[in-house]
Backbone:
């Protein structure tokens, strides 16, 4: 009897231990929200979370994505990280595109995933590259063809429609524009994506029922941390340029209107601008050009002819152009009326031009203000101008010996020289100032 009871206890302990072990070994799904443009900050956000997933044994990764697009270099780095997760780590990468949709660089990135699902009502596509400066037609067509081949090959590799995917870059590679954007129904019908889900709960249920993720898998969904969001906000090149110029301007103003507060504001702005330049991967030459622009703003206070100020504005804009680079996958703001939508207007170029115009206007206003400061300083009496003492009356504070002594003028004590015999308390008049030494003469006392 005792032996039977002992066996039952051992069985129960073993069963509970096996259940606990099974729970700890259950497959796990890791998910992140990314409502961002594709840029160096969002690139780091995705790659760092992929590393977290790998380090903690998550073999299933879901990217909940909505994006207007972004720059091509970050997109390519993100595709490389996804490929490594799928191939080297043997992980399953899933994109869930939510409303208003996944556009431009985001849809090319999505085709690198094992599975792509869209929220009903969202759109997908519009990935024609936009160039920051005019290029020969044949160069544009070659690059369009390269991106079309990239998204097509990724789609085919993951058992989707490569032809329809390639048309999101260009409906006709012999043209220099015309990337299609699909509605969620059209994208599913053309097999550009794998399906749809109303929300993340329904998506997990679908993935589980089809065996894409195990039914007993645990799910962790996280969003950007404050640090991630901070880096993302500073990844705007125009904002970084404004921060740098604002920093120079604030420090300069504080030199002539000392408060201390503006210096703190200026230095903080400079640090944030430089950090942001690092986030977007600005070249050292671009940063040096911004520093040169700031130095020219300082020189403008001395010169006053406007040449230095104008040069500073132009150099700032040149540095900003350098940061933007050559090829950009454009941001499409607002969901197009797909299908058959052609991206014929350079939306991104227009917005970039507006940003550059705002920057130039802001710098121009700053220069005008500095010019007003310079003019005001020219007419303002100098606080340390000793010449103002000439003609003033004071009193000797000691007996003069060998023509030297001290006098008090306007409640301040000064070293003084005189050709007269002066005793302590005698009334004196300032004749001249030589540095910090006054030349005085004895004056008769008032009657």
Residues:
């Amino acid at each position: 009897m005792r032996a039977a009871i002992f066996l039952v206890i051992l069985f129960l302990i073993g069963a509970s231990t096996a259940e606990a072990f099974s729970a700890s070994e259950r497959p796990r799904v890791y998910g992140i929200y990314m409502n961002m443009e594709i840029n160096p900050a969002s690139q780091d956000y995705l790659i760092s979370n992929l590393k977290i997933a790998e380090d903690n044994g998550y073999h299933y990764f879901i990217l909940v994505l909505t994006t207007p697009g972004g720059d091509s270099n970050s997109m390519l780095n993100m595709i490389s990280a996804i490929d490594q997760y799928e191939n080297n780590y043997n992980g399953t990468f899933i994109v869930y595109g939510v409303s208003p949709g996944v556009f431009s660089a985001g849809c090319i990135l999505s085709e690198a995933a094992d599975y792509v699902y869209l929220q009903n009502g969202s759109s997908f596509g519009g990935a024609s590259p936009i160039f920051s400066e005019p290029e020969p037609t044949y160069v544009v067509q070659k690059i369009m063809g390269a991106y079309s081949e990239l998204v097509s090959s990724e789609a085919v590799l993951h058992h989707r429609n490569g032809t329809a995917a390639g048309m999101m870059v260009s409906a006709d590679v012999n043209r220099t524009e015309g990337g299609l954007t699909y509605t969620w129904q059209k994208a599913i019908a053309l097999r550009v994506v794998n399906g749809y889900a109303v929300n993340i709960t329904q998506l997990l249920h679908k993935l589980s029922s089809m065996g894409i993720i195990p039914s007993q898998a645990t799910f962790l969904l996280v969003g950007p941390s404050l640090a991630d969001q901070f880096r993302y906000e500073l990844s705007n090149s125009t904002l970084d340029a404004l921060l740098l110029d604002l920093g120079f301007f604030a420090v300069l103003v504080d030199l002539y209107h000392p408060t201390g507060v503006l210096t703190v504001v200026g230095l903080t702005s400079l640090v944030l601008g430089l950090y942001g330049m690092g986030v977007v991967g600005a070249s050292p030459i671009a940063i040096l050009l911004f520093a040169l622009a700031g130095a020219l703003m300082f020189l403008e206070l001395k010169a006053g002819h406007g040449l230095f100020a104008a040069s500073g504005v132009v150099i700032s804009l040149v540095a900003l152009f350098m940061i933007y680079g050559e090829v950009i996958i454009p941001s499409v703001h607002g969901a197009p009326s797909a299908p058959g939508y052609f991206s014929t207007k350079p939306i991104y170029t227009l917005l970039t031009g507006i940003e550059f115009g705002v920057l130039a206007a802001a710098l121009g206003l700053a220069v005008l203000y500095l010019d007003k400061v310079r003019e005001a300083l020219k007419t303002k009496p100098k606080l340390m101008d000793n010449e103002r003492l000439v003609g003033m009356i004071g009193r000797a504070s000691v007996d003069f010996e060998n023509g030297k002594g001290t006098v008090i003028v306007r409640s301040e004590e000064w070293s003084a020289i005189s050709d007269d015999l002066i005793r302590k308390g005698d009334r004196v008049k300032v004749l001249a100032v030589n540095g910090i030494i006054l030349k005085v003469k004895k004056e008769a006392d008032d009657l």
Observations:
- The first strand starts at residue 28 and ends at 35.
